[in-house]
Each structure stands twice: as C-alpha cells, then as structure tokens.
Amino acid sequence: MRVLVVGSGGREHALCWAIASSPLLTKLWCAPGNPGIAALAECVAIGVTDIQALVAFARDNRVDLVLPGPEAPLVAGLADALDDAGIPCCGPTKAAARLEGSKAFAKQLADEAGIPTARWERFDDARAARAYIRRQGAPIVVKADGLAAGKGVVVARTEAEALAAIDAIMDQRVFGESGAALVIEECLEGEEVSLFGLCDGAHAVPLGSAQDHKRVGDGDTGPNTGGMGSYSPVPAFPPATQAACFDRFIKGAVAAMAQRGTPFRGILYAGLMLTKDGPKLIEFNARFGDPECQVLLMKLRGDLLPALIAACDRELGGFDLRWRDEHAVGVVLAARGYPDRPERGSAIRGLDAAGAEPGVMVFHAGTSADADGTIRANGGRVLTVCASAGTLADARDAAYGAIGRIEWPEGFCRRDIGWRALGHK
C-alpha cells in the first residue's frame, strides 16, 4: 500500500506513526508534514486545502489510500475530488462533512434522528440573535455556524459576554464568512467526553473515547484552546455507557446520513456532555480530535491500515480492531503566548531523551527544523507528550516525567491533565 496522510499536526504525526508499523505499507507520504513526521514518512510541501495539487500528487505517485487529518480539506471537497480521480479516500464527501462544516446542519440532523442535544436556534440576523439572548438569559452558548479552527464557540456566563460574542462573530466577522450565521444553544452542564467511530457509510467500528482539556489553564481556567491534553479511558464514561452512546450517537448519525443520501465514510467524532439527564450531543466532527487521536492510538494493538481500507471499501460490517487494556495520557506543550499570540522560533532540546522513556511517544505539531537538526517552535500547540501504562496515574506520571526531560523555557503545559479522574497532582 502507498499511503498519503494530509496534515501537519500532532494528530497526523500519530496517524503516520500507527500506519508506519503496518506490514501492508510500501510507501508513506505526508503533506505537508512536520519534522517529527519526517522520521516516518516523506514530507511533501503541499498545503492541506490545495485540493488540485493533492489529487495530482496522489495520481502521479499511484497512491492507494489518502487519509485526511484536519477538517478543512474535507469541507473543501478533497474526498470528492479524489473519488473523481479514482483514488480511495478515508474521509467524508463535502456533503457528508457538513456534519462539521455547519453546526446548524448537525443540530438539524440530530433532531431528525432523535439524537439528544441541547435546545438551539439558528440566526443570520444579529439583531434577532441579540433579542434571543435577552429573552433566554445566561449562561448560554454562541457558535459560529461554519469552521473557525476550533475557536468559534463562546460559552457565555453572562448576557454581556453573549452579546459581545455576537458582535465579534457576526458584525466584526472575526472568523470571516464562517460567522455569517450563528447557532445559539442551551448551556449543558456536566463532564465532556469525545467518542469516535470509523465508518464506511453503513457500518461503524468503535475507536474509543477520551476526555479533552480545552481551557488553557489548570483547573479548566482561561480561554478555550484547540486542546491542552487528554486521557483515555474516562472513568465517568464506563464501557456500558460508551457502548450505548456509540449505538445512539455514532451509529444513529451514520444511519441518518445514509437515509439522506449522503453516506458518511471516515472517522466520526461525537462530542458529548454527560448531563444529569443523560448524555447529550455537543457537536459532530468529521475527523479525529487532536489531542484525543494521540492518546487513542497509543492504545491500539491491531493494524490501523486494513481498517482504513475496509472503510473505503464499505466492508466494516463485522470488522473489529484490537486495543490494549491500558490507560494513556497526552499533555500538550504550547508556545508562550498561546492561544492569542504564540511566540515562534525558540529552540527545543531534549526530545530524544523524553521519547526514550518507557511507554512514551513525543508527537510533533507546530515545529520546524534548522539545517543542523535543531527543532524550533513554529506554532501554538507545539508538541504532545503521550504515555501509556497499566493505570491512569502511572500514565500521567510517565508523561510528566518525560516532559521533565525536555529543555524549552519558552514553552508551557497544564499540570493537571486527568484531574477529573485523578484529582489535582
């Protein structure tokens, strides 16, 4: 198999790491990749939304499978263009990727399929949205309808915060045309979990669950980020509950999308809130989460590549993946100033020593490399240090122990990943 992974973050590094171990693999590329991925795959300087160049590369190099990591190329129609060229893509079509590309579409589908979710309304007029906020009060959630790089959601604790969010998203267009419409919804309370499935349009295979830490600071304080760490499994989400949720949320969405004539193929992510009234849907994503992908793949025992092929070939019925009975923790190291203005260019040392720790993997995200091999920060979320072990406490200790080997004064991380399950360290 000749495989092309699309993306440049920690998620894509983890996917390349998992695929690289497959005995079926002949050649692995990643576009555009990063210095960590370069140790596993040949990196190709093509942007993730340069659809024409990605298809041409896949065709010219006789690629057997394309695996997109981020959502942007899927919403832009990469899978459609590859299908037209006869190249298998383990990702949804543009029509199916609306599950992530439009929050209003996802909510409509949930309502049609009987999938529990927060009460919601869609607005394309700022005055009407403000009037609704004043009627409903706070707390309340304001979301840009389109893609906003994980930053288009405001959990407003006051009416003033909600009104300011409407001004920023709809009037100032801080997220561009993604903010032309809003979804305003009930604020759900409880523990949040991420549930994943691999889908072939008709069937779905579980990929596990994890809990992400979105806030930048310890104790879930500060602004939302793309994710500061995650762990799996989640004690608040036991196997029986997870299995029931997989049937209701993942399989339910797959069935509803098939019924609409837009079957979903690829990785489907349901963000759930475990409320006092039971699990409810927060959002759907059309790909793996980051950093959840990293911790889940740390526990994978089986070969990921045949599963991806089966999803493309619509042959997941009866397919199963094997997983290690272990716990995994991933801690994101971010550049000083993240999430607002991350500082770039600082040198990072000690990565080999950190990665040599038992059960540890260091996944690159926002990094670059000098000609002499020096690794430098080149983004907001720069590394994900992951560890697996027999207990969650041991996995967390191993991850933070490895971080202690990394020399990067300009970086920072949360020190409480897994705190809901383990308490503050």
Structural class designation: alpha+beta
Query: What does the radius of gyration come to?
Result: 21 Å
- Flag low-confidence runs: none
Q: Would you identify the CATH H-level superfamily of the largest domain?
A: ATP-grasp fold, B domain
Describe the structure.
This protein has 425 residues and is an alpha+beta fold. The chain folds into 4 domains: 2-89, Rossmann fold (3-Layer(aba) Sandwich); 125-180, 2-Layer Sandwich (Dna Ligase, domain 1); 191-312, D-amino Acid Aminotransferase, Chain A, domain 1 (2-Layer Sandwich), CATH 3.30.470.20; 327-422, Glycinamide Ribonucleotide Synthetase, Chain A, domain 4. The chain is 31% helix and 28% strand. Strands 9, 10, 13, 14, 15, 16, 18, 21 and 22 form a 9-stranded antiparallel beta sheet that branches. Strands 3-2-1-4 form a 4-stranded parallel beta sheet, with helices on one face. Strands 5-8-6-7 form a 4-stranded antiparallel beta sheet, sandwiched between helices.
